[in-house]
Specification:
146 residues, single chain, two-stranded parallel ribbon
């Protein structure tokens, strides 16, 4: 954060304008750490940046059904971790599933469809017909430079 000021300024600008958002589960993960990132988020992000996922439970059940149906591929620990209430990944997918034409997941994860010990967000997206991009592609997609 002390090196890439223009990046963090751009994140703030995009958050303030509502172009980028996140969810409550990500907020919980960030603020549990009590570090420089949580301090920056607290000081710079608008109050409505982290969206409530309570209304996404139907979509969460759909995500849950998909991953459980893959129990011959994923190890039980991988499924349990992905569906854990303390983990944001399945909730991110569910929240996006609520409005797939207006939401795209930004993740640095890369699809690993044959991996057994971790469910990757891109693999859930591929299975459920959701779009995802990495951070640099997100900036390209919305036409941002800095």
């Amino acid at each position: 954060m002390d090196v890439a000021h223009s990046f963090w300024n751009k994140v703030k600008q995009l958050a303030d304008s509502g172009i980028i958002i996140s969810i409550d589960k990500v907020k919980e993960e960030i603020f549990d750490n009590h570090d420089m990132l949580s301090e920056w988020c607290d000081a710079n992000l608008p109050d409505d940046f982290f969206k409530d996922t309570a209304s996404s439970m139907d979509s969460y059940r759909r995500v849950s059904s998909w991953v459980v149906s893959r129990n011959s591929q994923y190890l039980p620990n991988a499924i349990n971790e992905f569906l854990s209430a303390e983990e944001a990944d399945a909730f991110i997918v569910a929240y996006t599933l609520d409005d797939p034409s207006n939401r795209i997941i930004v993740t640095q994860e890369v699809s690993e469809p044959n991996r057994r010990n971790k469910v990757k967000i891109p693999d859930a997206c591929n299975a459920l017909g959701l779009q995802y991009v990495n951070m640099m592609d997100m900036f390209r997609l919305i036409g941002e430079t800095f």
